[in-house]
Write a structure and sequence with these properties.
- The protein has about 400 residues and is mainly beta.
- The protein has one domain: OMPT-like (Lipocalin, Beta Barrel), CATH 2.40.128.
- It has 1 helix and 15 strands, in the order αβββββββββββββββ.
- The strands form 2 sheets. The chain has a 10-stranded antiparallel β-barrel with strand order 1-4-5-8-9-10-11-13-14-15.
- A hairpin with a 2-residue loop joins strand 14 and strand 15.
- The radius of gyration is 30 Å and the shape is elongated.
């Protein structure tokens, strides 16, 4: 990891030196030039970014008529304002700007839908084998929660490419480091199965061991990547030295790895033959009150057992394109104090993977995952930002 970071830093340094050495210096008016000294800008802002493209889909809603088909239920993310930080060193017009930018966001969402006795929710996250109380992959209620995290660190160098009295363009190059996590947890319930022994008069109270346990699914993805970026920035002065429109873009390519995991637990009923000790998975409809030759009933020899399906992948290599766009207005309030208001959108490609078992072989010794599917996930963060900046 250190060697890869060192290579990126070295490549960025060589590119920076080359561009600094050969970049043309454009003559400009005296009142728009830097005074030649060092200036620090500190900017503290809040970006209300909304993650998009997460595709958190905990369940489907069954269409009994078959007219429209089943509907996918989405767990949407919300806009959340988090601080971002900018430190900018203006080393003079003949050198350029060195800038450090850091932003992070963490948010969790949840949803619950219970419809006791109405098994209309498809357990689309569960492994299909043994999913649902009736082994048909449906439940009458579910709980879902998602966790999304982003950390974005940039170190850029920019320098004037062209300039006039009211317009300036700057090229930039830099290094970017991104971490993105996405997790979805879903629990499927059988709240009110309309079947013995859960309705009277078969039993006065349902046997505790036969009350259906909830199926559970966890899907995780953790991405880490770093690479180079380049772009342009533009300033358009509306009121000279007071108010300006600022816009720009950066395009980067990151080299990263993804750790991803999938875990599904389904519960099935097992009937144990008292004479032989052999166990077999019961198929619905369950007749727990059926009498046995020894005078007992099926419920006395029935238990629940978990069927676990787990899958993980570590350090899966991926190449991630990043596109960063912004437009805003910056105005001077007092001396070196400025206020900024704008809109920003960042696209992160291939920063997640959803892992799923595709084919499973069930044997007496357990389960064997014969084939899997991997689906690449991207993310986009966009929203308004506001900041205060001070130049020393």
């Amino acid at each position: 990891m250190r060697n890869k970071l060192g290579s990126n830093l070295g490549a960025g340094a060589l590119l920076l030196i080359a561009l600094t050495t050969f970049s043309p210096i454009v003559a400009q008016d005296d009142d728009t030039q830097s005074d030649g000294g060092l200036h620090f800008l500190l900017e503290l802002g809040s970006w209300g970014a909304q993650p998009r493209g997460m595709e958190y889909e905990p369940a489907s809603l069954y269409d009994p008529s078959g007219t429209f088909g089943d509907e996918i239920i989405n767990l949407d993310t919300d806009s959340k304002a988090e601080f971002y930080y900018v430190v900018d060193l203006d080393a003079g017009q003949n050198v350029g700007h060195f800038r450090l930018i850091w932003y992070s966001q963490s948010q969790g969402q949840s949803m619950t839908d219970y419809r006791p006795g109405d098994f209309v929710f498809g357990q689309i996250q569960s492994h299909p084998y043994g999913a649902g109380y009736y082994n048909d992959g449906r439940s009458d209620g579910f709980d879902a929660s998602s966790d999304t995290k982003l950390s974005d660190l940039r170190f850029d160098f920019s320098r004037t490419a062209f300039r006039s009295d009211r317009f300036e363009g700057r090229w930039l190059v830099g290094i970017r480091r991104v971490q993105h996590e996405r997790n979805l947890d879903t629990v499927y319930h059988a709240i009110a199965p309309l079947q013995e022994p859960f309705i009277p008069p078969t039993f006065e109270e349902p046997p505790t061991g036969l009350l259906p346990n909830s199926d559970e699914v966890t899907v995780t993805s953790d991405y880490r990547g770093r690479g180079l970026e380049g772009g342009m920035e533009f300033d358009i002065w509306v009121m000279k030295d007071r108010i300006k429109i600022e816009t720009g873009f950066a395009v980067g390519v990151l080299s990263g790895t993804v750790d991803t995991g999938y875990s599904s637990r389904n519960w099935v009923y097992l009937f144990e033959n008292a004479a032989t000790g052999a166990k077999e998975i019961m198929a619905p409809p369950y007749d727990f009150s059926q009498e046995l030759p020894d005078g007992g009933i099926v419920a006395d020899q029935t238990t629940q057992e978990a069927m676990d399906f787990r899958l993980s992948s570590s350090s899966r290599s991926t190449v991630s394109p990043v596109m960063d766009l912004y437009v805003g207005v910056r105005g001077r309030i007092w001396k070196g104090l400025e206020a900024v208001l704008g809109y920003r959108s960042v696209f992160y490609g291939n920063v997640g993977v959803d892992l799923r078992p595709k084919i499973t072989s069930i044997t007496p010794a357990g389960t064997n995952l014969v084939d899997v599917t991997e689906t690449d996930r991207s993310a986009e963060y966009d929203g308004l930002y506001f900041a205060l900046a001070y130049t020393f």
